[in-house]
Specification:
The protein is an alpha+beta fold. It has helices at residues 3-32, 60-68, 86-123, 127-150, 200-218, 222-256, 341-350, and strands at residues 36-46, 55-56, 84-85, 172-174, 180-183, 190-193, 259-268, 274-276, 279-284, 290-291, 294-295, 300-308, 317-319, 324-331, 353-362, 369-378.
Length: 385
């Protein structure tokens, strides 16, 4: 190899080495940097994760109807100015909805089924079956019969019998609290007729029922037991309609407090950590979408409070290198407060409109924020691309 060729080969090797070092340094630097990757799982309309300490005035007639309902155990406590935290009100509405769902789907059909079985036992005068069934289902039977008795939804059809004219098949005892108890032979379960937990005039009313119901079993009073069985059979028809109406009212009220929300995750495929700020933005392409008054004139852009998977909206989310953090973002405005509410609901249920979700992150070594975005199609159970 001549001198010129050797020199050229040397220069080429030096250039390749330098280039390799530069590329290696760039790769190392890139891997060492913070590298956010944004993923959206869902863009929903929901009542979850309400940010801040917003207060509202609940619907008085709805709250009163729920508080007076015989089978809704939780009451909403309001301050003197009838204002409550929005989050507390929505949580209470959700609990009432779930209670009514359980009542309609499980409790009322179960009451009818138990009533039918009691009626069958009475038809054959199989009192051991009646006692066994009552023992198995007393947590269902007694609260409903007791509540209905206090409201006069349940009454006995005859005057209270003279018990001295009947044989006592079981002994009614009074426990240390004053409640009436029937101890069944060869059974680990006692029949309990609890009245002492009530207060005031309701306690006296419930004691009257507890005494008579316990004696109906102890003395085999068929008429009284038939009245209880018939009430349980008819309870579904009696309470189903009002419970459905109340549930529909709850759903309408919940709808008034729905917000657009986004769930997803931020990954860091670099090694340096970064922080995600608590303010995000959601844009939905609605321009040109058909509405009853014509085509939508503009897109929708909303500010959202972004928090971690525990709905902490106060502290930025720190994402260390190589780790993933879940987030939940909720619109600062309720959907019912937007002029575009009907359009947004329509697009959510029946269309696929493009959306963009944006977050701001503070990267290491920079005092400025960088914006990261992900796009997708807005519809029921939508996610990002």
């Amino acid at each position: 190899m001549d001198t010129n060729s050797a020199l050229a080969a040397f220069v080429a090797s030096v250039v390749a080495a330098i280039a390799g070092a530069i590329v290696g340094a760039l790769i190392t630097r890139r891997l060492a940097a913070a590298r956010p990757v944004l993923l959206v799982d869902t863009v929903d309309i929901s009542n979850s994760a309400i940010p801040g300490g917003a207060v509202v005035t609940p619907r008085k007639e709805l709250v009163t109807a729920c508080n007076l309902h015989p089978f809704i155990g939780m009451q909403l406590v309001m301050s003197s100015n009838r204002r409550v935290k929005e989050s507390e009100y929505v949580d209470w509405l959700g609990e009432v909805e779930r209670t009514l769902d359980d009542l309609l789907a499980i409790q009322l059909p179960a009451m009818k089924a138990v009533g039918d079985q009691l009626a069958q036992g009475l038809a054959t005068k199989n009192f051991e079956l009646i006692e066994r069934l009552w023992g198995q289902e007393q947590d269902l039977i007694w609260p409903y019969v007791e509540s209905a008795w206090i409201r006069d939804d349940f009454v006995f059809s005859t005057r209270e019998p003279t018990y001295s004219e009947h044989s006592e098949a079981r002994v009614v005892i009074v426990d240390e609290d004053g409640d009436f108890i029937l101890q069944l032979p060869k059974s680990p379960v006692n029949l309990a007729f609890i009245w002492t937990r009530r207060v005031g005039s309701m306690q006296a009313r419930t004691k009257e029922l507890a005494s008579r119901a316990s004696k109906a079993i102890a003395y085999r009073i068929v008429d009284d037991l038939n009245d209880i069985a018939n009430f349980l059979v008819s309870a579904e028809k009696l309470y189903e309609g009002p419970a459905k109406d109340l549930r529909n009212g709850i759903l309408r009220e919940l709808q008034n407090y729905q917000r657009l929300s986004v769930t997803g995750q931020v990954s860091n495929i670099g090694s340096a950590g970064f922080s995600v700020l608590n303010l995000a933005h959601l844009s939905i392409h609605l321009q040109g979408y058909p509405t009853p008054s014509g085509l939508a004139a503009s897109d929708l852009r909303l500010a959202l409070m972004l928090g971690d998977d525990q709905s902490n909206f106060e502290t930025p989310i720190t994402v260390p290198g190589g780790q993933v953090r879940r987030f939940h973002a909720t619109a600062t405005k309720r959907l019912g407060d937007l002029t575009e509410q009907a359009t947004v609901r329509s697009a959510y249920e029946g269309a696929e409109r493009p959306f963009a979700f944006e977050i701001d992150a503070v990267l290491p070594g920079s005092a400025r924020t960088r914006r990261f975005a992900v796009t997708g199609l807005f519809h029921s159970r939508s996610g990002g691309d």
